[in-house]
Fold this sequence. Notes:
Pfam families: Entericidin. By secondary structure, the protein is an all-alpha fold.
Amino acid sequence: MRKLIILAVAAAALTTAACNTIQGVGRDTQAAGQAVEGAARDAKN
């Protein structure tokens, strides 16, 4: 039973860390998309 609790706590910690990482990647991707969009607008004008 103790091993199961330790495993559950470890899984919860990893899941929380993964969410923060994925959120950061999402922000980076969004910023890159905005940069490409801005460059496309500049090229169009």
